[in-house]
Every structure is written in C-alpha cells, then in structure tokens.
Design brief:
The chain is an alpha+beta fold. The chain contains 3 helices and 5 strands; from the N terminus they run βαααββββ. It is 24% helix and 39% strand.
C-alpha cells in the first residue's frame, strides 16, 4: 500500500429491499426509508437509503479490500445525493496516508445523480502472530 494507490471500485445495486432492510437492521423506522407514498408526501421522489446503511456499506468496501483482519478505527462520512431504488452506487477509494499498520483511505460513493457519500476511513490491518500463521 502506498499513498495515491486506488482501491478497485465496488458497484452496489440500490434496491428497495436493500434500503428497507438497512433501515430495519439499524432500527431507523423513519417512513422515508420504507414508505414510498409518505416519502413523496414529504417531498422526496421515493424512499431513500439512511446514513447507517451507507456507513455499513463503506465499512464493507474497506474490509473487503483489506481483508478479515482489518479493524475500522474511524469512519467519518458525509452524505450528499440520496440513494434511490433502481440506481447503482459506485464506491471508490484512494490511500491518503500510511503509518505502520494504520492506513487512511479517502472514500467516494457516486450514483446517477451525483456524490452520495464522501469521507475518510482509518483502518488498522493486524499482522498475524506466529501461532495464527500456522507456525
């Protein structure tokens, strides 16, 4: 890993099921995350993904890349354009800093209408001990 290195992109289909399941899993029962009619009455064209689901998907993106020994030390994200059903979010990342076993990654998630999420993730990748490595 070196500063400036880009992580491969991850495409995530935004389905109604993903949006509703993420809201339920994070106990976010706001109607705009599961009821299209009420979301429209509140000015949204449809239901949209909550920040906790986005946060989880950003974490997944990072741990999928760095592997199961990855520890998320800090996730700092900001939402922009909503993720609506039928769209695709593409997550990308760039290594910003490395210091020993700690790496900072700049993350960007875009969809059909713009930037859905921007932020940074600080990860620590634990080195296996001799016992864990089979020695």
């Amino acid at each position: 890993m070196r500063v400036g290195e880009e992580l491969p992109p991850l495409e995530i289909e935004i389905t109604r099921t993903l949006i509703v399941a993420g809201a339920i899993a994070s106990r976010d029962y706001q109607d705009v995350h599961h009821d299209a009619e009420l979301a429209r009455l509140k000015g949204s064209p449809d239901i949209f993904m909550n920040i906790l689901t986005t946060n989880g998907l950003v974490g997944r993106y990072i741990t999928d890349h760095f592997g199961p020994r990855t520890v998320l030390r800090k996730v700092a994200i900001r939402l922009g354009a909503p993720n609506y059903p039928g769209d695709t979010m593409v997550l990308t990342g760039t290594i910003e800093e490395t210091d020993g076993d700690t790496t900072t990654v700049r993350v960007l998630g875009t969809n059909g209408i713009g930037r859905h999420v921007t932020g940074t993730v600080v990860v620590m990748v634990a080195v296996p001990t001799t016992t864990e490595a089979g020695g």
